[in-house]
Design goal:
Elements lengths: L2 H6 L11 H19 L6 H8 L3 H7 L3 H24 L5 H16 L6 H5 L9 H24 L3 H24 L6 H16 L14
Helix pairs in contact: 2-3, 2-5, 5-6, 5-8, 6-9, 6-10, 8-9, 9-10
Length: 217
């Protein structure tokens, strides 16, 4: 190649700039991949910038730091899971089917390919002063949604119904987290039905308001 040809050769094109909101979404998606693969504490802004194929200054234009990125993702996926669970609760008037639908929704979230559940349940951030109130609010919101169904159906006071709601969401959280860690998992449908049967055997022991008596075993 001659010197003239070298000088006149076209320069490599710069990557096309994304609209701000599209870039932000891309950075969040890449951050999720990194947090899932490495965990919060081992992940770095360099890792996220590398996966997103952007410079660190571009990353910092959108997020002040790793913690803010994590909280944004946590809020988004907690909101998604809460919506899935509340939709399942409202999907039927049959309480047995309602329990089954809610348990299935939880397992479906746990089994998603993006493994976003790791942010919520296995990130090691439970005691973080910004994370803990978010998780508490999520559990409270879902427990109250369950409690409203229980109170309406059985006449239980809301305080008691809310306690039952927290018990149910704690049970499925524990069971689903265990399921997610297994190298050989039972089928998702089988697992969700086992959990829903366990929950139903407990919650169905509370009489409907019109029954007025606790059923004997």
């Amino acid at each position: 190649m001659t010197q003239d040809e070298t000088i006149s050769a076209p320069a490599p094109q710069r990557a096309k700039r994304m609209p701000r909101e599209m870039r932000r979404r891309q950075l969040l998606d890449c951050a999720l991949q990194v947090f899932v693969a490495k965990g919060y504490h081992s992940a770095s802004m360099d890792d996220i910038a590398d996966v997103a194929q952007v410079s660190k200054p571009v990353l910092y234009q959108h997020f002040p730091g790793k913690h803010e990125l994590f909280l944004d993702l946590l809020d988004s996926h907690l909101g998604q899971l809460e919506q899935m669970l509340t939709q399942a609760l409202g999907s039927t008037e049959d309480n047995k089917e309602r329990v089954s639908a809610t348990m299935t929704a939880f397992y479906e979230f746990i089994s998603r390919e993006d493994e976003a559940y790791r942010l919520l349940f296995t990130s090691g951030m439970d005691n973080d002063e910004a994370v803990q109130p978010r998780m508490d609010r999520f559990h409270d919101n879902v427990a109250v949604a369950i409690a409203e169904v229980i109170a309406d159906d059985t006449g239980q006071p809301m305080a008691e119904a809310t306690l039952l709601g927290h018990g149910l969401i704690g049970m499925v959280t524990s069971a689903a987290r265990h399921w997610s860690r297994l190298s050989e998992r039972p089928d998702l449908d089988v697992s969700s039905q086992l959990t829903s049967r366990l929950a139903w055997r407990g919650i169905s022991g509370f009489p409907r308001e019109q029954d007025g008596v606790v059923p004997t075993q």
